[in-house]
Specification:
The longest helix has 13 residues. 28% of the residues lie in helices and 22% in strands. By secondary structure, the chain is α+β, with helices and mostly antiparallel strands. The protein has 2 domains: 36 residues, no CATH class; 124 residues, SCP2 sterol-binding domain (Nonspecific Lipid-transfer Protein, Chain A, 2-Layer Sandwich), CATH 3.30.1050.
């Protein structure tokens, strides 16, 4: 992402601007443009910044989510259960309509990326909205309802999936999830 201040301005704001802080223009690799507004106060202790948002599972979203997970690498406890899971996400509203992805916790860290991995414990097929509800919104009820309705198909060792869902998230994992929610449209 390229970030630049307003051209020709000392403080980054447009000339003649009566707002109380500079504006930055950010361009994502896919042409996404976001304006970040910084609000400054006399004591400068309260500074707010909006973040760019990307469609769930887009290339830009994957890149930003990886950066967030890298920021926390080594700071979260190892997952309670090692799981190597391939995912097939259907009904994706962009691209070819289906995304192959994977999640792997066998290294002691949560790793997510596109493409499938060898020797996966299981493969889960689910639609885009359900995947977003489970992975971004952290809504386990959505996953259970979708499974009961036949919208989630599981091939392989289902006990690994159930064990993964039974483990409570730690505070750092919740913080990571909240940051990922912030970047998701």
């Amino acid at each position: 992402m390229v970030t630049e201040a307003w051209p020709g301005s000392r403080d980054g704001a447009p000339h003649g601007s009566d707002d109380d802080g500079p504006t930055e223009l950010s361009r994502g690799s896919g042409g996404t443009v976001a304006f970040d507004r910084f609000t400054t106060h006399p004591d400068d202790s309260r500074r707010s910044k909006s973040v760019a948002k990307y469609p769930f599972l887009s290339d830009e979203w994957m890149s930003e989510a990886k950066k967030i997970r890298e920021e926390y690498k080594g700071k979260t406890p190892a997952p309670a259960h090692a799981v190597r899971m391939n995912q097939v996400i259907t009904d994706v509203p962009f691209g070819p309509g289906t995304i192959d992805a994977h999640m792997d916790t066998s290294s002691g860290e949560l790793e997510m990326d596109t493409g499938h991995i060898e020797n996966a414990d299981l493969k889960v097929t689910l639609d885009y909205e359900t995947a977003k509800a489970i992975l971004v919104e952290q809504n386990p009820q959505a996953g259970m309802q979708a499974f009961m309705a036949g919208k989630i198909k599981v091939e392989g060792d289902m006990t690994k999936l159930m064990a993964m869902q039974a483990a409570p998230p730690d505070a750092t994992a919740v913080e990571v999830a909240n940051k990922i929610q912030e970047i998701t449209e």
